[in-house]
What does this fold into?
Amino acid sequence: MNAGEESLGSVSGASGISPEGPDAPGLAPGLGTLATAGGAGGALDVSVGRIRREQLRLLLHSKAFIVGALIVLWWVVCAVFGPLLAPYGATSPNILSGNLAPSSAHWFGTNAIGEDVLSRVIVGARDILEIAPLATLLGTALGTTIGLAQGYLRGAVDMVVGRIVDAALALPTVIVAFLFVVAVGAKTITLVVVIGFVFSLIIARTVRTAVLQERELDYLAAARLRNESVLHVMFVEILPNVLGPILVEFTVRLGYAIFTIATLSFLGFGVQLPTPDWGADIANNSGLLAAGYWWETLFPALAIASLIIAINLIGDSIEAVLIQ
Amino acid sequence: MQHRKEGTELSQYASKRLGLALVTLVLLSLIIFYAGQVLPGNPGRAILGNLASQQAVAALNHKLGVDRPLLTQYWSWVSGIVRGNLGTSYQYQAPVSSFLFPALGRSLKLAAVAFVIVVPLSILGGVIAALNRGRVVDRLISTTSLSLSTVPEFVSGIVLIVVFAIVLKWLPVTASAPDGSPLFTQLRYLILPAIPLVLILFGYIARMARTGTIEALDSDYVRTATLKGLPRRVVIRRHVLRNSLLPTITVIATQTGYLIGGLFVVENLFVYPGIGRLILTAANDKDFPMLEAGVLVIGVVYLAATLVADLLYTVLNPRIRLGKAE
Amino acid sequence: MTLAASAGLPATLEAPSTTLEVSHLDVTYRVRGTDRPALRDVSFRIGRQESFGLVGESGCGKSTTALAITRYLPRNGRLSGGSITVNGRDIASMDKSALRQYRARTVSMVYQEPGRALNPSLRVGNQVAEVYEIAGMKRSDALARSEEMLGVVQIADPGRVLRSYPHQLSGGMLQRVMVAMALASEPSLLILDEPTTALDATVEAEVLDLVSSLRQQFKTSVLFISHNLAVIAKMCDRVGVMYAGELVEQGPALEVFENPRHPYTVGLLRCVPRGGQRKDHGRLDTIPGFLPGPGEVQVGCIFAKRCALADQRCTAETPPMYEVGAGRASRCHYHEQAPDLPRATPEDVKLRSADPSEVPVIRLRGVSKTFDVRGGDKVRAVVGVDLDLRMGETLGLVGESGCGKTTLARVLLGLSVPDEGSVIELEGTPLAAKCTDRSRKQLQAMQIIFQNPDSALNRRHSVRHIVTRALKKLAGLSGDSCEQRLLEIIRSVRMEERHLPLRPYQLSGGLKQRVAIARAFAGAPRVLVCDEPTSALDVSVQAAILNLLADLQSRERVTYIFISHDLGVVRYLSDRIAVLYLGRVMEYGLAETVFSGPHHPYTESLLSAVPTLDGTPRERIRLKGEIPSAAHSPSGCVFHTRCPRRLSNGLCESTEPPLVEVEPDHMMRCHIPLVELRRLQATAPDLPPSPTD
It folds into this structure.
């Protein structure tokens, strides 16, 4: 008999991942067995190493992860070996072959000044993949530290930093980045720093929330009773417990970094011509859409979309594995 | 008597939040001022270009008032704003407000169209996904919505333009209807630019609605309701939705940030004279008063939205509204 | 007019003599593609107006049974065998609308945590009225009937409660509302799943009494599920003992508890502290081994691995339910020898006792802690506590929620800063208010074991890391000596080296608590605060931990402050007892003196609220009402609002009595003189008997 329709709720989590019925700690495979004075056993004799390997195996079998990883891998290869892979030069204008539709000679066609679109798409992966991971790493490291401090120390630190975070986040990332780029100029380092900094504030918020949940737990009181230093508590006690959300945030932010960089270039505030850049190419060729020249904008657009979606697929599969 | 006590507590909470919002606003203005006035350095030079003479630049700088001490500049800017004077555009030599507010109005119109489409759709999507948890419908809604929401607006915008405006020729390529068009025509022009905005917001709101609904479905009180023998429809309507939609409200308001960011891109792509386009042009022209005022206005809109959402949540949640009575 | 008649429905046929019949029930969960049995071959029946108890430890499947009966198993659970019949109808074959009718009219359920069982966004009245609306009443009639029903469950101001939201009401009040909702539909079967576990003792007693009397009034059959044997003994006519998904014994409740016929039941009963048992004499026994994983035991007796009577036959042949007497059954080949089950641990041990001539290890004088709450209220959590503790002694701190025992513990340790004027001395030296201001030696000397082992250990750290860190910081050890001491400590809490690399989530509750104990002992403390260390553990695990604590105390000469709401456990372990109420010490003295009486009226009511295993109904004092909020404590004697022995001259309302020594080593805070209390409490019939229970 299937009880599915009758019970509206499932006591377990989504899609039967965690199976526990209402009083069944002993139903999860092997976990939660009770021990008494005999002392023998009562624990799951599996080392952490085994669990990690199991998680890795699950990850590698997840369709989402495989698809995402393959796409990302492809673009990384493009970023590294771009000029070698591109059939034509990425910046070799040839006015005579301007605006040619996709054909066997030019798979993705050519743009207004005759540059091969496929080559530009391949080489265009480079600057995005240079800036985005750096900015995200910076943001994550900085944000984690800020969030830990805010969540654990609370008081004045929390209030002051909190207000600054609120203020900075009152504007969308794109706008803040663009504001600073206007002010200081569009150099790679500027983009990395600005985006990284804004991300650190966003991540700080997530970390802070996670830390607040940990704060009331007794193991931290136990640490206080050992007179552990503040740094020790933040980084040795609390941090390992919030790594899960941080990892997930990292992948989400990475996707958003690419989003932001592409948008900035589209708006004209990113990397400058003639370097191939997906966003800039779209911006420069969008006027031709009305005339029916769709390939010059569509392929870079699809490139952006595929990279972002791939990263999100990876992030989702990691999150699913961590939940288990 | 209970109502009066509720009222005062609520207004206390409201004023506290308002105060915090004001503090945030001040900080925001500082950030904007810093980015706008301090970082670029020499607006006179930026406007006149590298070939202009030193005296011309100095004269312009003096005329613009940028050779005064920073604090004075900041103060005059802020006090001006409070009085309604948002500064004078470098580019047009006219009050910023005369350009800013009409542009803001147009942007709000576009945003409203996007909102009206996305909110009911995403909530519906999230709830349906939750009610069919783990099944195909759920996975379909969840994955596609999240994938779509991470694609930049100009990307989806391009695809939409190519498909609907060029290939199918159903909708116009630009967003501004000719002047004096009736409302319906205006809406027709606004649909295509609204869709990328919808896509961005849909995923996130749907996910919150889904999570909230799942939590409610798994809760003890839904168990009680079901075991009372209530039909499933009633349980969902009266017990589940009421509790799951509450957190979704706050999320909707905080999405205003993404919405605004999206406006920039969408207005640019569809050539729509909203505030986003205005700010972008100002940036390109190095028209700093326009730029700063515009960004500040955006910040105010966002803070106002979150404040409203907070208060709405407080009013609707009896736990916060009433507190322990005994 | 019955509910059915008022809804215009025909009167039901004469109900059959059996309300519930569970026959060879199997329930299976599907986990990650494999089937895991949750219930196996469970059979029992409940007759009309009979009350049946299902008792067992966690994982035994008692709640699953309840879910199966209401057909509310989670999506991955199913009835894989057997049948459930209620009032003659088979549950499994019901279609959706029949199922709804069934839930609305035939069966009702009340379960743990009433605060979560009600919709927080709807007023209580509307939720109760729903029951009547399902039967077809209009909203206004339904609300009127709801108000009546709330009166039936003895709620004093039903109108106000109807208009309130759940978060505005206390746990006890909410549970009454749940009972009202459950009985409003006049069900044939009422299922109660740990309904009072989350409630205080005095409130629990009231709710249980309510259920008993209403059961008579509404003529309902009751299925009562609990891990608490005494509550079952009190409430149920018959009982079924469950272990690892199987029903191992059943029969009339008092008979089963007095004369058990299954080794598991025997073992379980030996784990529960009763009147005469003490940590050194009449010790609690334990059940060796551990619960089998689901599906681990396919053939043979499910309890065989842990049973001292087991032999070849037990592992080869699955025992059927043997008839053991009138209405009794046991699933054991050797059920006759069950009562002679050999003990796993010795009955009497030699423990060192406290030396009364030494200077007190801990001295508390005038310790108070007041919290400021939003809205300007002040919560006086602890008020003017004076206590002395001697070396090697165990002080039991007893009280219900809001009494301040946890706050007091935190203040002692320096986790919470007490009010000005509080004096806390450790071996004669005053301690700094904040633990961060205390010296390492002072921190080392006083440690704590928390209630919840999941929260007390860092889930990311290995056992080795957890204990080693404590050794480093508190004992100042490192290198080889640290490693050596680590192994010593692990062994002393009866764990093994192979546990060292494991993380807390890989350990059971009992093991986790042992790690916490090991950590606490790392610095060789003089004083150990045990804050409800066994409340979250099963009975059999609890017994082991209590004995471990007693042994460690004897060996290491540690003083314990043992906090608990469980009087039986406190009595078992403590040399002295302090009874707290709303932050004040109401009674304080030697354990046996406090327990045998004459007692403070509050202690008296606590003792009479706690059910005993032999089910003797004590002529109880039943306290009315709820525990007052600590933010608005009553004037004069804080207990006067509920005190059944309150003086009529108004003294109790106006003046707070001081804590005075009423006889050697016995302090009390009451206006009534000791002789008078002795007289009053002696004349009450069926007084709690003397220590040799």
In short: Chain C touches chain A through 86 residues (CB under 8 Å). The first helix of chain C runs from residue 3 to 6.
